[in-house]
Amino acid sequence: MNNTLTGKAAVIEGLPEHPAVKAILAWNPQALTDAKWDRSELTLTIAAEEIRAAAAAVQAAGYNFFEDMTAVDWFPSAPRFQLSYHILSHGFKEHIRLRVMLDAAEPSVESITAVWPSANYYEREVFDLFGIRFEGHPNLRRILMPDDWVGHPLRKDYPVEGYR
Amino acid sequence: MSNPAGMPVLEPAEGAKDQHMVINMGPQHPATHGVLRLVLEIDGEIVVRVYPEIGYLHTGIEKTCEAKFYQQVVPLTDRINYLDPLSNNLCYCLAVEKLLALEIPERAQWIRVLLAELSRLNSHLIWLGTHAMDIGALTVFLYTFREREDILRLFEAVAGQRMMTSYFRIGGVSMEPPLDFFDRVQGFISILPEKIDEYSNLLTGNPIFKNRLQGVGTISAADAIALGVSGPPLRASGVDFDLRRDIPYSGYEKFQFKVPVLTDGDCWARYLVRLDEMRESIKIIQQALDGMPEGPVKADAPKIVLPDREKMKTQMEALIHHFKIVTEGFAVPAGEVYQGVESGHGPTGYYVVSDGTAKPYRVHMRYPSFATLQALETMCKGRMLADVVAVIGSIDIVLGEIDR
């Protein structure tokens, strides 16, 4: 299927049998704020306060492997930050993307390390490079930049050459 | 962890202060394959805790990508996992091609498969040589680097560069391989199986090597998945998953090969899995050589793919396209894609976000070693300090891809 489906209603109607869509709808339809099927990739936007429970829901549905997580800074638009979680299913042989949008002021979201301990380093990386806090993370320290570094280099208002 | 410099001073566990010791391994240590620092808490010779400290090679490549045109990112990708450069090129090119909805000619896809497998062999040969050297078997290193040299010569013939090839471009490959290239590859892979037997003869039956690896660094499939282990180490723990077979890309669905899987989950299983993978790679290369289709090696997309030199000098349109691609790049439709490929170390993933301009809005690279490092403590706990060296070697880390 190569067509594009934009919006929650279109995805629910177009992919009613998709295991991830089914799992999220069975768990909490209200937490799904937006959805997209584009270039054969499914993106499910989850309300920020529900991400840990959503991760647990897709994990229970067979999306067993946490593959990647990162952020995108949409400065100066609002909401400013987008978190993209890429989850792989060894059984269904496909990736899905869970997406969370966060506001610019003190961005913070619940950690999913309780669901996948492997998210530990990825959340530290996003904290380090974007300055997004993860509540409940066991060791939220900078991971790539020096501990005494000031600023978050991957934010769009941080110059590519750095401050000199 | 309150200390002014912010370094991870690891205090020995409560109640064991008289018995445990905290030591530092690396960042400059021959067995860390780069600049990895491990803070280890040990009880005599027994490892109690492992705390990896990374970031010594962080160069901000993801930030640099945002300031380059799409085609200028390709050479940056080589430098991340410098042992398997063509898999990086492939992953990035496939991601951008997915954004552009660009069809790649079959010949280019097959050349890509052939070279990606050579690149995997390159990566595995270095792993085998350095891993055996860490254990104390120095000879194998000299043998594997002899064959690796042949691979680098092939890369040089096709790309003009030995290590930083940048041979795959958005829309295909940079140019048709030289005339005798496929014969040279054929010559190389006809001698390689016996060379692999040679390494195997030196190591597989070697009781010292076996004792150092068997039962060391064991991790169960459930733990491996929870801690983000992927690629050959995950297959050595019994999870039968390989992106080349299960989510095929670049025409891998047309090739027949086995995915080696073992269930022991120790360093020895990881060694055997990689050795078998090398033999499977040879089969894939043989199939690519036998069935290599004829045709163009670049997509028919004059606004995206640079024209041939000859055309550029003789045709006005080609010159205009060349000028525009070089000076202002090409716009990529807005959207986000995640593309995974199975590189030598495991699944590599590129997440590319476009805002519709000629520069990527965000490029994020997922590399297997970064996540696998989290499982180091589980693998090393309760074992001897010397086993840490064996475990690091067996998970095949590249610090360039961890720190990016």
- Which architecture of the domain at 5-106 in chain A does the CATH hierarchy give at level 2? 2-Layer Sandwich
Number of domains of chain B: 2
The coarse silhouette of chain A is globular
Q: Uncertain segments of chain A of ≥5 residues (pLDDT<50)? A: none
Query: Most extensive chain contact?
Result: A-B, 40 and 44 residues
**Which stretches of chain B of 5+ consecutive residues score pLDDT under 50?**
1-6
Structural class of chain B: alpha+beta
Compressed to H and E, one letter per element, the order of chain B equals: EEEHHHHHEEHHHHHHHHEEEHHHH
Instruction: Identify the CATH class of the domain at 5-106 in chain A.
Output: Alpha Beta
- Using the 3D structure, state the CATH architecture of the largest domain in chain B: Orthogonal Bundle
Write the CATH homologous superfamily of the domain at 5-106 in chain A.
NADH:ubiquinone oxidoreductase Nqo5 subunit
At the fold tier of CATH, the topology name of the domain at 5-106 in chain A is: Beta Polymerase, domain 2
- Total number of beta strands of chain B: 8
The CATH fourth-level homologous superfamily of the largest domain in chain B: Cytochrome-c3 Hydrogenase, chain B
Q: What characterizes the major β-sheet of chain A?
A: 6 strands, mixed
Radius of gyration of chain B: 22 Å
| CATH class division of the largest domain in chain B | Mainly Alpha
The total strand number of chain A stands at: 8
Rounded radius of gyration of chain A (Å): 16 Å
Largest sheet of chain B: 3 strands, antiparallel
Write a brief structural summary:
With 164 residues, chain A is α/β, with parallel strands linked by helices.
Describe the protein.
The complex is a heterodimer of chains A (about 160) and B (about 400). In chain A, strand 2 (about 30-40) and strand 3 (about 40-45) form a beta hairpin. Chain A has a domain at about 5-105: NADH:ubiquinone oxidoreductase Nqo5 subunit (Beta Polymerase, domain 2, 2-Layer Sandwich). In chain A, the strands form two sheets. Chain A has a six-stranded mixed beta sheet with strand order 1-2-3-6-5-4. In chain A, about 25% of the residues lie in helices and about 30% in strands. Chain A is built from four helices and eight strands. Chain A is globular and about 55 Å long. In chain A, helix 2 crosses helix 3 (about 50-60). The longest helix of chain A is centred in the last third of the chain and has 12 residues, at about 120-130. Chain A has helices at about 10-15, 20-25, 50-60, 120-130; strands at about 5, 30-40, 40-45, 65-75, 80-90, 95-100, 110, 135. Chain A has about 160 residues and is α/β, with parallel strands linked by helices. With about 400 residues, chain B is an alpha+beta fold. Chain B has two domains: about 1-55, no CATH class; about 60-404, Orthogonal Bundle (Cytochrome-c3 Hydrogenase, chain B). Chain B contains 17 helices and eight strands. In chain B, the strands form three sheets. Chain B has a three-stranded antiparallel beta sheet. Chain B has a three-stranded antiparallel beta sheet with strand order 6-7-8. The longest helix of chain B is centred in the first third of the chain and has 30 residues, at about 105-135. At the A-B interface, strand 4, strand 5, strand 6 and helix 4 of A face helix 1, strand 6, strand 7 and strand 8 of B.
